[in-house]
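A further point concerns the way the authors explain their paired sequence and structure data. An entry of this sort, consisting of the sequence and the corresponding backbone structure tokens, reads as follows:
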Amino acid sequence: MDPEQNVTFGDHYLEVDYDLSKVTFITTANSLHTIPRPLLDRMEIIGLEGYTEEEKFQIGRQYLVSKVIEANGLKDRKVVIADSAIRAVIRGYTKEAGVRNLERELSNVCRKVARKLLSGKKKTGFSVNAKNLKDILGAPNIKLVKSKRSMKSVLLTEWLGRRSAEIFSSLKSVWFRGVVNS
């Protein structure tokens, strides 16, 4: 990471020396607390907010619901997860910036629905909505707090969403110039 030391970087696997003094390293991390402090001190941190609730909802509705229904063997069982249930899972059972936990919770819903279908009289047809979600997943473990600050975060996230292509394009061009010039 020190430009003076990067002139003599040697790859021990390929046994080749590289000049990395003009190269920019880009990395991603889900949390900063796991990065060693000396490394973190040498990094320029660009924080990006996660998905908005609406973006999570659209990803869940368009991609995740059909994926978890099929993965849990419910495709032919006519199981429907309503939009209200997806929103309730996002609000009450997931708090991450991404959608991994949303997919996990929707999988939990599908497994519990499969169990209900196999143990009950009905073999097909089950509709999950916000009203019966508590019976399936239990009480929500996240309480929503509405504030002006969270609204600012949503607005910033939406602005970054529109600007992300520009940001990453400029980062890519900086990286590419560094590789070509070295």
Summary: The longest strand covers residues 9-11.
